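Summarise this fold before class:
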Amino acid sequence: MKKTLSLVLVGLLLAGSLFAGGAAEATKAAPAKPAGPVEITFWHAMGGVNGEALASMVDEFNKQYDGKIKVKYEFQGSYDDEFAKIQASGGNYPCDIIQVYDIGTRYMIDSGWILPVQEYVAKDKYDISQIEPNIAAYYTVDNTLYSMPFNSSTPLLYYNKTAFEEAGITKVPTCFEDIYEIAEKLKIVNPDGSVKRYGYGMGNYGWFFEQWIGKMGLHYVNNNNGRGKDYATAVEFDKNGGGLQIVKVWDKILKEGISPYLNMGNDDAKAAFISGSVCMIPESTAALKSLLLNVGDKFEIGVAYFPSINRNDKGGVSVGGGSLWMMKTGKQEREDATWEFLKFMVSPEMQAFWNAKTGYFPVTVAAAQTATFKENIAKYPQFQVAIDQLHSSAPQYSGALLSVFSEARQIVQNYIARLANKEVDAQGALNGMAKDINKSIETYNLVNY
């Protein structure tokens, strides 16, 4: 049984006291019909070009629903910033809709603060097959769709196609065996021994670790990857061999100078790729548009499937990005308005627009039939590789669900950093990851289940 009060306390400890703790229970009485438009608040974490595209979509909704529904959209900073704020709110419902990153899914389900969109899917007889099945699978537990997929992405391999051609390389890497070989051909060393250009580079990003586990067809945590009848109680990657294989790849590329250490996250890796000092990087599909714009005519960008650890791995990629959650405010008119807004945001034309402006997948199948989508694919054919990779995966590789996923990802990154600094070896890094993540899982489960 969920212990909602305990979950609130955990949120407060994790995020800090950003809101006054607690609130009176939302009234269940039917509200009087509002005189003006129903106003709802939308919290999001999209900045820059993505934020501009999102604002255009919300403005279009407000225009079409003028006098009926008005959406106020409020930028909350990064995903982590926004997630900390909703944790600290203690169920005080500071918004009607919140965009939450993929790794916050289990926490949101456990919180008791949300209204599963499945309820409105059933009530409205909404055809859920409109949503890409490999995307919907991530946010579905026990046949219940908990949130509406929105800004979905998977990792890809980006490569400097011009440098490949100049080096006479025609093979596109599909696994690290290929990457080692090709990276050596692309590497340029100065007379003084310093490296002018690396063939490969990647940021210390925990999301890649999770994706490689899935590419091997393995589970990150137990109990059906956190999707079973029971919640996850421990990691699996230390027992199934997947984690050690991934850490050993990290160890090899750093020790042998195949890649420089490009710090936590992936910003430095993207900058290195744009400058031409690194020829291949893994990165999100959502980065494609910005990379194309920033590289310009300096070189041609090639795009390939996210490489596997081993040549014969038989798994698939899972979606990253985020989804839109309905908060259980107890205000019928606001919840109804929220559902109308969600349907609008995943309508084919809006998803085609979103894809064209940002690089995120169109989560709606019919978006591929729109003129907007077709024009964008014709202009940027690299987007098709991302779509093809999504369709080549399967729902069983939808990825893990874990309440402490944000902490787990940081723990993985901390140990990769220690590996880079030669403080631990590959086995020591793996053992540390498993021990620290299991401790976080145990603490969370003890308090909340």
The first helix runs from residue 4 to 15. The radius of gyration is 22 Å. The first strand starts at residue 38 and ends at 44. Residues 1-28 have pLDDT under 50 and may be disordered.
